[in-house]
Design a protein that fits this description.
Blueprint: H1 2-35, H2 39-50, H3 54-57, H4 60-72, H5 76-88, H6 92-104, H7 108-124, H8 131-147, E1 154-162, E2 178-181, E3 196-199, E4 205-211, E5 217-223, E6 234-235, E7 245-250, E8 256-261, E9 271-278, E10 281-282, E11 286-287, E12 298-304, E13 309-314, E14 322-329, H9 344-349, H10 364-375, H11 381-384, E15 387-388, E16 394-395, H12 404-435, H13 442-471
Antiparallel strand pairs: 1-14, 2-3, 4-5, 5-6, 7-8, 8-9, 9-10, 9-11, 12-13, 13-14, 15-16
Helix pairs in contact: 1-2, 2-4, 4-5, 5-6, 6-7, 7-8, 10-12, 12-13
């Protein structure tokens, strides 16, 4: 019996020794786990250390590391309590990450406060603010200024489309010109991958983005010459081409240019800017602010004065390989929300387009107008379609075709356009019904929207087939 008790005592002591040793290894290895990118394991180790005793629970470095693990796992809000404890102990890294979390939550004033604490902590440690963090500080200041002047616009529609061909879903009047892929450029002209080429209604000019000598995206223009060739691309003004510039759209007045840029006045990725041209060139561009711009990429703003509608694209909703296109009613004169508006951040983010609607306003006419634009391509399609071939020729009639197979494919394409037209009419009416209070039809609208996306993808495939057959 004594032997058994001694054996049990030995096993217990050995187990305790192993446990203590294991705890010690976890303590020594926690940082190594973090440095190796094993954040879940490292987080567990730091959490165990934090619950060891009350003194450990307040340990600034342990809390900071736990916060970093959660931050790198994308659990930003959960990391805040840990960073808060670490910041109270003057850990600069904690202040920096609290600033970035507040920034991503559109709490820009808080972000600037954390930045100030971060700078003070570094100063006490006789360290300088990292150069790469300076741009973040600039973005936070710009973002706060934007949040103080969010434009009051009414967004009447949104649709998620493939990022690569998003521009094909803009439907506006011919007077606005056209958005095209870089396929329409002469073969000797270079373009940034997925660049959008803008042409006015006259098709006498092209605007697009190419890489300059420093591999920076730069807006260039080319005009057609008297012999139907294109002049060598010329860079737009230096004021336009600071940072990467892309996605140009020129208003029919030939004066107002909208484009995207990711330079120092951007708050994240591409922002939408506008500039006006005078006899000396383009004036200093102005950031469009919120809600057009976000912490992600925003670009390709188009305004159609003929219909009173506008569009822009954004990847703020973070849908893989897709972007969201918003359709809105532009203001003749900019009107901003009051800074005390309760849901200002939601309006800036565009969390829900219905939040932007004016109570009791009937959007039936404007939605029908949008429907008319979407149907424009199908009206009298036998004589009004526009098909641009790689050689620059534009077909507008079945009689233009030389290849019989291409004619058959074009007829199929036009029939599919009719199908698309019917789907658009259905969803347009449902949207009107929804805006009039029939909220239960929302699932039906989503089903039809998906069918429209599928139909449009099919049309793109058919259109490419037509071009291929005609060119063979």
């Amino acid at each position: 019996m004594a032997m058994i008790n001694m054996k049990r005592t030995y096993i217990f002591a050995l187990t305790l020794s192993i446990a203590i040793s294991a705890f010690s290894i976890t303590l020594n290895d926690a940082k190594a786990l973090y440095n190796n990118g094993e954040y879940e394991k490292a987080l567990q180790a730091f959490k165990e250390l934090l619950v060891k005793n009350s003194k450990s629970a307040k340990d600034a470095n342990l809390n900071n590391y736990a916060g970093l693990c959660l931050y790198n796992l994308g659990e930003y809000d959960q990391s805040i309590p840990y960073f808060t404890i670490a910041e109270s102990k003057s850990i600069p890294d904690a202040s920096k990450h609290l600033a970035m979390i507040a920034f991503n939550n559109y709490e820009f004033e808080d972000a600037l406060d954390y930045i100030e604490t971060y700078q003070e902590s570094l100063a006490k440690a006789k360290k300088e603010v990292p150069q790469e963090f300076e741009s973040f500080i600039s973005r936070a200041v710009n973002a706060q200024n934007m949040l103080d002047r969010v434009e009051n616009i009414q967004i009447i529609d949104s649709i998620n489309v493939d990022a690569e061909t998003f521009f094909k879903f803009y439907k506006f009047s011919r007077e606005c010109g056209s958005l095209n892929s870089s396929d329409i450029l002469p073969k000797e002209f270079e373009a940034v991958p997925y660049s959008v080429v803008y042409q006015p209604e006259s098709k006498a000019q092209m605007l697009w983005a190419t890489f300059n000598a420093d591999s920076v995206e730069t807006l260039v223009a080319s005009s057609i010459l008297s012999d139907d060739t294109w002049e060598q691309p010329q860079e737009l003004d230096e004021a336009i081409n600071t940072g990467n510039s892309n996605y140009p759209y020129m208003m029919p007045d030939g004066i107002t240019l909208y484009f995207a840029n990711d330079g120092e006045n951007s708050i994240g990725g591409y922002d939408i800017f506008f500039s006006r041209k005078d006899e000396d060139g383009f004036l200093q561009p102005q950031n469009m602010g919120m809600p057009y711009n976000s912490l992600h990429n925003d670009y390709m703003l188009v305004i159609d004065e003929m219909t009173g509608l506008g569009w822009w694209a954004t990847d703020r909703n973070q849908i893989d390989e897709q972007v969201t296109i918003y359709t809105f009613i532009p203001n003749e004169i900019r009107v901003n929300y009051p800074t005390e508006t309760p849901n200002l951040i939601n309006l800036a983010k565009v969390n829900a387009i219905s939040d932007t609607w004016v109570e009791d306003r009937d959007y039936t006419k404007i939605l029908n107008k949008l429907n008319d634009i979407e149907n424009f391509e199908t009206q009298n399609h036998a004589n009004q379609f526009s098909l641009t071939l790689p050689n620059g020729k534009v077909y507008t009639s079945i009689s233009d075709f030389k290849n019989e197979e291409a004619v058959q494919a074009m007829q199929e394409y036009l029939d599919e356009l009719d199908t698309l037209n019917n789907l658009i009419q259905q969803v347009s009416q449902l949207r009107i019904d929804y805006s009039n209070g029939l909220k239960e039809i929302a699932p039906e609208i989503k089903v039809l929207e998906q069918k429209i996306l599928t139909q449009r993808s099919s049309l793109i495939r058919l259109r490419n087939m037509v071009v291929s057959l005609e060119c063979k």
